[in-house]
Amino acid sequence: MDDKSNDYSQVPVGLNNCGLRGGLGDAEELETIPEVQRVPSMKNCSVCFIPPAFIMASRFLAAACHVSPFVLSAQKTTRKCVSLIHQAAKNSANLVIFPESYIPAFPVWSAMLAPTQNHGFFERMAKESIYIDGEEMRAIRATAKQTGTVVSVGISEKVRYSTATLFNSNIIIGTDGEILVHHRKLMPTFFEKLTWSPGDGFGLRVAETHCGKIGALICGENTNPLARYSLMAQGEQVHISTWPAMWPTSVSGPRKESTGEGSSNASPVGKRANYDNVAANKTRAAAHCFENKCFGILCTGHLTESNVADIAAASSDPSYISKVMGETSRGATMFLDATGTALPGYIVDSTSGKKTQKEFLQVEEDILYAEMDLDKAIEGKQYHDVVGGYQRLDVFNLKVNRSRREPATFVDHDDGA
């Protein structure tokens, strides 16, 4: 399919095992799927006629998409995103979550090569990042409305006032297709600063949905106690944390660089341990769940072997990139209960509909489902309600600036002041 096509009604079915290959420059003809009818419970209440956005159920089904993008193709990845929402909705999901910077990709290359070697990657990232009011977001919003699902999706966001200012953003969309939370990551972490600009406090909000009050933070923000507390203070019941497929911090051996005289200089990294994505991510998410007495959804990206091969091939040093990505630990997608304990989930066979229990997804690409009962988060508040009965509001005072920052304020008419 031509990348210039913007017909998002033509969407791929299922995951990579249906023939889709997440990679650079692929051009498959993508199949279409029929319209999915939502479950009757999502319609207006037949007794009180209250629209579903205002009915909060105690129990709901969450679907965390542990999936790969079509790397640096916003249109193809959006089509896949739309398809996955339909697939999750067909399996009765009420809340569908996608990883950090799912569209168009997470800039993992910035961890492995010098900035002077990544200009090509940055140019493509800037071109393939998407506008909050662009056609890709309109397609996802329309799908959320059509399927009656709440959708949380990570994007690399570009803005109208610059050709290269990008933000690492997470968007929560309601069942009516409206954007409920537009969050830009407060501070890009480590090598991410080479791609994204710092965000602001505008998106430190919870979305009031039929699945409860939902908040979201991106990757390293889940280390920031003030960002987390700002969501707790708004009654957050479900916390979404999004993560990349991998986050390289160290390499086991030296990278040899030619001196131009037939010899080489070694730049040893030493024996530093690489980042343990699973342990680091779960520790932070579990701490938040325990402190806030809320449910947790860790939604992590996935990279196929073809993704890795394509990223390596597009780099200035394919063998080095393949080595680093091959030895870097992968993150995991999982659910946590209101005590921070792992909440068992399951996957659904796309052919037979059979459910197989899974505590987490890491190596395989799939959608992980789990039912959450918000009533199970009440008891813990008796012990530690850190925004209420277990807090000293006379001692501590947190002020959060939620204004959206713009580069300039323009006055077109002088009022004489």
From TrEMBL:
MF GO annotations: catalytic activity
Domain annotation CN hydrolase: ranges: 60-374
Segments for region (Disordered): 249-272
Domain of life of the source: Eukaryota
Pfam families per the UniProt record, alphabetical: CN_hydrolase
PROSITE patterns: CN_HYDROLASE
UniProt record similarity statement: Belongs to the carbon-nitrogen hydrolase superfamily. Nitrilase family.
Record-linked PANTHER family: CN HYDROLASE DOMAIN-CONTAINING PROTEIN (PTHR46044:SF2), NITRILASE (PTHR46044)
Name used for this protein in its record: Nitrilase
Taxonomic lineage of the native organism: Eukaryota, Fungi, Dikarya, Ascomycota, Pezizomycotina
